[in-house]
Amino acid sequence: MSNLDYAPPAIRQTRRALIYMALIALSGIILAPFLMIVVLALSSPAEVFAWPPVLIPDNIQWQNFSDVFRVTNFGRAMFNTFVIATVSTIGIVLIDGLAGYAFAKMRFPGRTTMFLLILATLMVPVHVTIIPLFIMFRNFPLAGGNDIFGNGGFGILNSYPSMVLPFLATAYGTYLMTSFMRMLPDNLVEAARMDGAHEFAIFWKIYLPLAAPALTVIAMFNFTAVWNEFLVPLVMTSTADMKVIQTALADFSDQETVLWNLLMAAVLISILPLVLMFIVGQKHLVRGVAVGGTKG
Q: Mean of the pLDDT values across residues 277-294?
């Protein structure tokens, strides 16, 4: 114990008050940009450029939120983003879960080498693979007007698969699931095999439910990452009906002007699902991170 633990009550209370003040000041710094977004989203165009800045709009413009969907096709972009994020999250939970089970509970030649190769991809930024992925999707056989050799059309570009496939599996998710499942008892596998259960049934009925904390972390992190993804949809799509939220935000600006109030309203609408997700899943997320960190 430090000497401060034996300090008089007045000194301890002063120290506690200073810590609280520092935390409140830090919270204010973090929340200030978000509060400014709220103010701009509820302001009129004139109040956006007013000086000194308007902290409380004189006439709150609630119609800005409806104008977001009227001025642009933002509703379609939100639907596209939801589909892509949901499908990729389901895929990553299944694929990374299966990979973690295989590396942790099964024995096969080259297991360690393959696992190390997967971990090595953590050092490669995901966006470095954008151009190779674009070429692969562009030359995808028998899709988008392509022949069997991948020529003549546009492959699977401008489609959901081109934005889902890059996020169906991650090296981090595989590592986390492998580390977590290694801590689960092996006798469950042995008992299930003696009862005649096949490997997928063992994974699905026994280990997948036990790995729920780690799967929650992977699912929430992946859903957030895909929801906020910009570069992959920008490269893989070129049509208005396949835009996602992050690319659709550019519709509120052009070379001459930016509709700041509508843009900020669209930003608030776009982050609302993520806020609700973290509020609902906060306990599971904290538990998953804690358990993963303890057993990693």
A: 67
Q: Is residue 193 part of a domain?
A: yes
> In angstroms, rounded to a whole number, what is the distance separating the alpha carbons of residues 173 and 277?
19
Q: Are 128 and 135 in contact (CB under 8 A)?
A: no
CATH code of 236's domain: 1.10.3720.10
Give φ, ψ of 253 to 5 degrees.
-140, 155
> At residue 16, what is the residue type?
R
Q: Is the pLDDT of residue 296 over 50?
A: no
- For 145-159, the pLDDT digits (tens) are 888 888 888 889 999
Instruction: Report the distance separating Cα 177 and Cα 175, nearest Å.
Output: 6
Q: Contacts by 156-159 with C-beta closer than 8 Å and gap 24+?
A: 157/236, 157/237, 157/238, 158/236, 158/237, 158/238, 158/239, 158/242, 159/242
Q: Please write the tens of the pLDDT for every residue from 2-57.
A: 555 556 777 878 888 899 999 999 988 988 888 888 988 888 888 888 788 778 88
Residues 6 or more apart in contact with residue 170 via CB below 8 angstroms: 92, 96, 218, 222
If phi > 0 it is left, if psi is from -120 to 50 it is alpha, else beta; for residue 123 that is alpha
Three-state SS at 149: coil
Other C-beta atoms lying within 10 Å of the C-beta of residue 68: 27
Number of folded domains that form the chain: 1
Contacts of residue 184, defined as CB under 8 A and 6 or more positions apart, other chains included, come to: 104, 207, 210, 211
Examine residue 208 and state whether it is found in any structural domain, yes or no: yes
- What is the rounded distance in angstroms from the CA atom of residue 182 to the CA atom of residue 204? 16
Distance from the first to the final alpha carbon of the chain: 29
